[in-house]
Write a structure and sequence with these properties.
With 153 residues, the protein is of the alpha+beta class. It has 5 helices and 9 strands, in the order E-H-H-E-E-E-H-E-H-E-H-E-E-E. The chain has one domain: Aminopeptidase. Strands 1-2-3-4-5-9-6 form a 7-stranded mixed β-sheet, sandwiched between helices.
């Protein structure tokens, strides 16, 4: 990925046009509906189109939360997600004290957040089993608890 060849823009209307991308990170639409309208959405694109999206929300007390971040399947592991997190970190530094994100206990997502400078914070037991209408698996592992990571801004 060549950083100078992409742009990041805020999407203010018709956020659901990116539903197929949002569903890569949160596979149940009614869960996305809980935050999409109150969240701020950014997309990263280049001359070939949208590569990655991110939705963040103000959780109060100086906490900004990543509710959804996903790169198209053919764009994963190419630096787009990290570039979007770096953009959010810089944009909101000084306006918030903490950037946090919740994810499943998965060997795909945890190393990504750690590489982006996040550290483990806390967990919500049985989040996925209590809030989703079907079991969610990643790398053959059923996701149960929501693991939170945080990064100081």
């Amino acid at each position: 990925m060549k950083e100078k060849n992409f742009k990041i823009e805020e999407i203010k209307v018709n956020k659901k046009q990116f539903l197929s991308l949002l569903l890569l990170a949160d596979e149940q639409e009614n869960m996305i509906d809980r935050y999409i309208d109150k969240g701020v959405m950014y997309i990263l694109s280049d001359c070939d189109g949208v590569k990655c999206e991110c939705v963040i929300t103000d959780e109060g007390n100086g906490i900004l939360e990543i509710k959804n971040i996903a790169a198209k399947k053919d764009c994963q592991r190419k630096g787009y997600g990290k570039a979007l997190i770096n953009f959010i970190t810089e944009k909101y530094k000084g306006k918030y004290s903490v950037l946090q994100v919740g994810t499943g206990d998965s060997p795909l997502t945890i190393p990504f957040y750690e590489k982006c400078g996040f550290v483990r914070s806390h967990k919500i037991k049985n989040f996925f089993t209590d809030n989703y209408d079907h079991p969610i698996y990643e790398c053959g592992i059923q996701l149960k608890d929501m693991i939170y990571f945080k990064k100081m801004l």
